[in-house]
Amino acid sequence: xxxxxxxxxxxxxxxxxxxxxxxxxxxxxxxxxxxxxxxxxxxxxxxxxxxxxxxxxxxxxxxxxxxxxxxxxxxxxxxxxxxxxxxxxxxxxxxxxxxxxxxxxxxxxxxxxxxxxxxxxxxxxxxxxxxxxxxxxxxxxxxxxxxxxxxxxxxxxxxxxxxxxxxxxxxxxxxxxxxxxxxxxxxxxxxxxxxxxxxxxxxxxxxxxxxxxxxxxxxxxxxxxxxxxxxxxxxxxxxxxxxxxxxxxxxxxxxxxxxxxxxxxxxxxxxxxxxxxxxxxxxxxxxxxxxxxxxxxxxxxxxxxxxxxxxxxxxxxxxxxxxxxxxxxxxxxxxxxxxxxxxxxxxxxxxxxxxxxxxxxxxxxxxxxxxxxxxxxxxxxxxxxxxxxxxxxxxxxxxxxxxxxxxxxxxxxxxxxxxxxxxxxxxxxxxxxxxxxxxxxxxxxxxxxxxxxxxxxxxxxxxxxxxxxxxxxxxxxxxxxxxxxxxxxxxxxxxxxxxxxxxxxxxxxxxxxxxxxxxxxxxxxxxxxxxxxxxxxxxxxxxxxxxxxxxxxxxxxxxxxxxxxxxxxxxxxxxxxxxxxxxxxxxxxxxxxxxxxxxxxxxxxxxxxxxxxxxxxxxxxxxxxxxxxxxxxxxxxxxxxxxxxxxxxxxxxxxxxx
Length: 658
Fold this sequence. Notes:
Blueprint: H1 2-24, E1 34-40, E2 46-53, H2 57-88, H3 94-110, H4 115-177, H5 180-200, E3 203-207, E4 213-217, E5 222-225, E6 228-229, E7 231-235, E8 245-250, E9 253-257, H6 264-299, E10 314-315, E11 319-320, E12 322-323, E13 333-338, E14 348-353, E15 358-364, E16 370-378, E17 383-385, E18 388-393, E19 403-406, H7 412-415, E20 417-418, E21 432-436, E22 445-451, E23 474-481, E24 484-489, E25 494-500, E26 516-521, E27 529-534, H8 549-556, E28 563-564, E29 575-576, H9 578-618, H10 622-657
Antiparallel strand pairs: 1-2, 3-4, 4-5, 5-6, 7-8, 8-9, 10-20, 11-13, 12-19, 13-18, 14-15, 14-19, 15-16, 17-18, 21-27, 22-26, 23-24, 23-27, 24-25, 28-29
Helix pairs in contact: 1-10, 2-4, 2-5, 2-6, 2-9, 3-4, 3-8, 4-5, 4-6, 6-9
């Protein structure tokens, strides 16, 4: 009877401690309710007391998965929402500055000789560029923020991996001592660390020897093994160092992995960077390059207020490609220069050398996968793809396998500079004028004057004006009858023979190309003539300072489709206006942000459901524990009575014997 009482007191004391421990930890994150189980002794009393940790393994595994998905959507959405607000802010966005610029160009065209109107327009050019630069810098700041968070999360993950490994070792020691309550507490701590780690990345847990577990990433990369652990860190990307990625090192061998592929918050940051941030940066750069290049080219086709052919308003950056870390030399140089902004895409490119002299240019999608080979070349010859001239300068010699990644648009908006300083340099006037003969009898009239090229090397314009036009450039159109004309140059010599007149065909008719042409409408009469002359006199002074022929074409760029819409290799090439391109970029970011909000809400609901299912088994129920406490207290008291009764019987027995 004494042995029965002692075993009962011991058993119920443990039960009271466990019930009290459950109640005390009702608000402890990760705590799993413990339950006491008794095993009866054949000869009476309690033989064994076992502390059982109540846990639904399936619910726990699902919760880890749902926690990773929730972490992914939360980190993605937090960053995407910032980008969406940044681009959608009408008060500080690019859209308003573009509208203000073209409004000032229209005002300038109304009085082309006004210096004050020109100065206002020049200031608006600067404001527009500043808005591009500001948004580019803000997007670049988000890139820095992503890098900081990747670094922070990697450090936190590294700490958690170490904690899991250390608890594996402790559980090995505790298992030998059969201390069930301490074992349960250590298991809870380890599961809580794994739960926290699953918020940062997808992890897989498999049992190992004893209470130890193996921990791996979703791709199978080991993080924790019974006798070793990995370290995870943020490292410079290859080929672009500023684009941080992850490196996992187990033993002496590092394994690099893209952040977007690990899941959890780290994966969300990587996916946001690839799907929202970098596409927005590339599209912003594409728009800015297309717009500034269009302004440069159009200004080059006019005359400024000093009677000189127009120059560039902006200086466009030259993009330098990133070389892979294992290239034959880090001093090789591959660059991209914009030659036609309307042909630029928002894609990146990869240049791969197939030998020391031969190379291929490949287009990439937003994930970095090759979508096609656009061109092949041989050093030292450059090549042009999508309006981009690619130049290659080796340090000694390239080698087969050398690979470069060219990002011509991503950072372009921040690198464009304004080079025009004087308002007089805005070339509003057309460089040529067309005068109708005073004795013309027909109804023919000038319908358009089109200047396409003012480069003296490839056009009829002079390298050293005055005169502005070469003597061989077209100078007079004379109709021999109502359906044919003869073209004469500036010196009066005939250009070709008699040509049939077509109001839809430019004069001079193709294939003749002098960098300018005219079109006539109506019906000419025999003897009618039109004189083509430069818009400056023999001394270089403008003959019509109020001419806004080229200024109107500058204004028309607001609605012209100058931004390429489709991708490399697509045919036919399609275009859109700058305003539509900007609206499309804002809409794309908004759509992806909205989609992620929906996914985040769904992930939160699934997470809460999984957590509730786990808590239904592992969570502490205060009412139940209070009842257990009363039950075990009564059992303890009753068992103590067994001891006192046994003592009384023993005392009476001694008295009887004595």
